């Protein structure tokens, strides 16, 4: 969130908010978070292949139990991370999706069609390439793995190119990744659900309706949505549908409208500032006047705080407050627990496994090809238009960046091969290699594009 004026620069407790608009605010988080994920992944790989490998496995399998009376949830740490912490991640994803459709790049249908078509191609072609190599048995369950894009990682390394990448390209990648997230939620909800239990589903439906009803009644306190959001998560956890879907649904119910009109806010704000100015003029100028407020000044400031709270919807406040925790705590924990691949003696033979090269092919070839073809025809058919200051070669470069599946692909892999450790290991190898190759080629393509 942008901070304006000298007062905001006096004490910045969170320097990462130094941005000029909402997109750059999000992009800056992604830049820092992407680098953190990179180093955490290296730590996980080293730990998983060190003499302390057993401690790594024991760490992931620590059993944690939550119980209230006869109600008990008992899971290993890795499952708490993948089911609970990732639900918070998807809650933020849901907030971003809702914001983008209301006021962001996806709010204008003319602008939205380009990243939407690009994302559709970037999901279908990778899935098709994977399926071509894995059509037998349980191996075909991994078709959703190369569809995903790790937006934090992708934006993080894209930021390293600085001015060589126009803002329009960063906006395009962000919008594309958000549409990817929508696709990931649909895939997880529809295709990676083994058994559905109807009673929890019905309960989840009632809880979801309660959240919507609370929004319509004007309930804006986060505690209401937090408490019922936990109940919604538990219902999905017991239903058989992956619990992370609850995060997205809960996010869609968060109020997004201001309580006051913008013109009224400006009018009242000017009036309050005038009152504050008069009280300063009438007060004696002392050293304490810089520290203590008069009763009148305190009343004005309190009213201004209330006005600011009314003008800023809960959706924006929650996104801004939770995103740092997701970026700097939840995603690094997820990477630490899931990126550790044991490089055993058969590691090189794993490179020739169909799951491995199916994932690599989907990420490295499928993403840029699908994004380019679908967006190209969308422009040629007059459905959408190429973003300003953007060339087709840059779109291909962004296609390679979209091939950085990393944490999102690992998450889908953990669902696709939940009961097949060998296939899960092979898919993780493919994800790491495919993401790394896509990153290197994408950096090269966009780096030299500017000089040309």
UniProtKB/TrEMBL annotation:
<feature type="transmembrane region" description="Helical">
    <location>
        <begin position="355"/>
        <end position="383"/>
    </location>
</feature>
<feature type="transmembrane region" description="Helical">
    <location>
        <begin position="171"/>
        <end position="192"/>
    </location>
</feature>
<dbReference type="GO" id="GO:0015385">
    <property type="term" value="F:sodium:proton antiporter activity"/>
</dbReference>
<feature type="transmembrane region" description="Helical">
    <location>
        <begin position="322"/>
        <end position="343"/>
    </location>
</feature>
<feature type="transmembrane region" description="Helical">
    <location>
        <begin position="29"/>
        <end position="48"/>
    </location>
</feature>
<keyword id="KW-0739">Sodium transport</keyword>
<feature type="transmembrane region" description="Helical">
    <location>
        <begin position="429"/>
        <end position="448"/>
    </location>
</feature>
<keyword id="KW-0997">Cell inner membrane</keyword>
<dbReference type="InterPro" id="IPR004670">
    <property type="entry name" value="NhaA"/>
</dbReference>
<feature type="transmembrane region" description="Helical">
    <location>
        <begin position="199"/>
        <end position="217"/>
    </location>
</feature>
<keyword id="KW-0472">Membrane</keyword>
<keyword id="KW-0406">Ion transport</keyword>
<comment type="function">
    <text>Na(+)/H(+) antiporter that extrudes sodium in exchange for external protons.</text>
</comment>
<feature type="transmembrane region" description="Helical">
    <location>
        <begin position="145"/>
        <end position="165"/>
    </location>
</feature>
<dbReference type="GO" id="GO:0006885">
    <property type="term" value="P:regulation of pH"/>
</dbReference>
<keyword id="KW-1133">Transmembrane helix</keyword>
<protein>
    <recommendedName>
        <fullName>Na(+)/H(+) antiporter NhaA</fullName>
    </recommendedName>
</protein>
<keyword id="KW-0050">Antiport</keyword>
<keyword id="KW-0915">Sodium</keyword>
<dbReference type="Pfam" id="PF06965">
    <property type="entry name" value="Na_H_antiport_1"/>
</dbReference>
<comment type="similarity">
    <text>Belongs to the NhaA Na(+)/H(+) (TC 2.A.33) antiporter family.</text>
</comment>
<feature type="transmembrane region" description="Helical">
    <location>
        <begin position="112"/>
        <end position="133"/>
    </location>
</feature>
<feature type="transmembrane region" description="Helical">
    <location>
        <begin position="395"/>
        <end position="417"/>
    </location>
</feature>
<feature type="transmembrane region" description="Helical">
    <location>
        <begin position="68"/>
        <end position="92"/>
    </location>
</feature>
<feature type="transmembrane region" description="Helical">
    <location>
        <begin position="223"/>
        <end position="252"/>
    </location>
</feature>
<keyword id="KW-1003">Cell membrane</keyword>
<keyword id="KW-0812">Transmembrane</keyword>
<dbReference type="GO" id="GO:0005886">
    <property type="term" value="C:plasma membrane"/>
</dbReference>
<keyword id="KW-0813">Transport</keyword>
<dbReference type="InterPro" id="IPR023171">
    <property type="entry name" value="Na/H_antiporter_dom_sf"/>
</dbReference>
